[in-house]
Give the backbone structure.
Amino acid sequence: MATSQLSGHIFRSSLHRRTIFRQCHPTSVFLTPPKNIKTKPLKYDRKFKWLIKFSLVDKQTPTKKPTVDMKQLVEFLYEDLPHLFDDQGIDRKAYDDYVKFRDPITKHDSIDGYLFNIAMLKQLFRPDFQLHWAKQTGPYEITTRWTMVMKFILLPWKPELVFTGTSVMGVNPETNKFNSHVDYWDSIKNNEYFSLEGLLEVIKQLRIYKTPDLETPSYQILRRTATYEVRKYDPFIVVETEGDKLAGNRGFNDVAGYIFGKNAATEKIPMTTPVFTQAFDAEKSKVSIQIVLPSDKSLNSLPAPNQEGISIRKTEGGIAAALKFSGKPTDDIVREKEKQLRSSLIKDGLKPQSGCMLARYNDPGRTWKFIMRNEVLIWLEDFKLD
């Protein structure tokens, strides 16, 4: 429509000019219009003007895409997710009414179902949620890495369940709100709902381990696979002496005597757990037995040992992998567990150091074998939490 009107006006405009140029031959001739043809001013066509205007707008102005400040949403998650299970809770206004939530054993498709799942976990498990990082991984996608440690309070022994993994959170570009949340656990391969492997992973962690109600070295679980945990240990102090074997007891009475008052100040020091035995090389030619000292003590405040062969040393902490098992540990069992752990670490691309540690948490004379908690630990080099 706009084209036909435009052609008409151009044609009329040519006729009404006082001078017309026409190329007939190589030589041009100037012609004047006959006197009986009256010229009229070109009428202003408002409709024609708007047709041209809209045509230009349609062709020159691209469709504006929704803009989402993904950096701001990442910063929001750093502030909001630590409140996932506390009294403040997450900000409901940051989520669409329709939220697709999936983990290997749970499924919800609304914000109400999503919040119900959070409330249920809070009541039954008292979760400790730790956010490690959050970053943009797609145009409208943010991925987070986390650790969640839970205690199932309905069972008398209150088993500890540990899950680590990533969450992929989708953003609705029309509302700037989250509209999906999908969890992936590090400890299983099949993370699609409903995962039988995921259910068995939960059941496996409900078994009985007896951990004494004593102070232990402080650590944070960074990753939990099907066979081991990767932990970040804070520095701690030990009293140690020479041992004989990883599963042996030689030297225990000497280090226990130190905390029971056989020291320069005859000071009794609270008992902790576990008792460590450490092999410093692959051949396990040198072994020490260690008791961890309370965290409120320092090297300067501790009394000196009054027995030769006993020393106090600060362990700088670091990243260690731990494999948990029950029963009464023997040297053969410990060596087999160490071999299994080292093989898994190498397979997963990690760098285990030489040597290992055995952690024994229970008094063997007062604890049933099947509920004893033991761990083999190997320190790692250059670990990065991806």
The chain has two domains: 68-204, 229-380. The CA atoms of residues 15 and 39 lie 8 Å apart. The first strand starts at residue 20 and ends at 22.
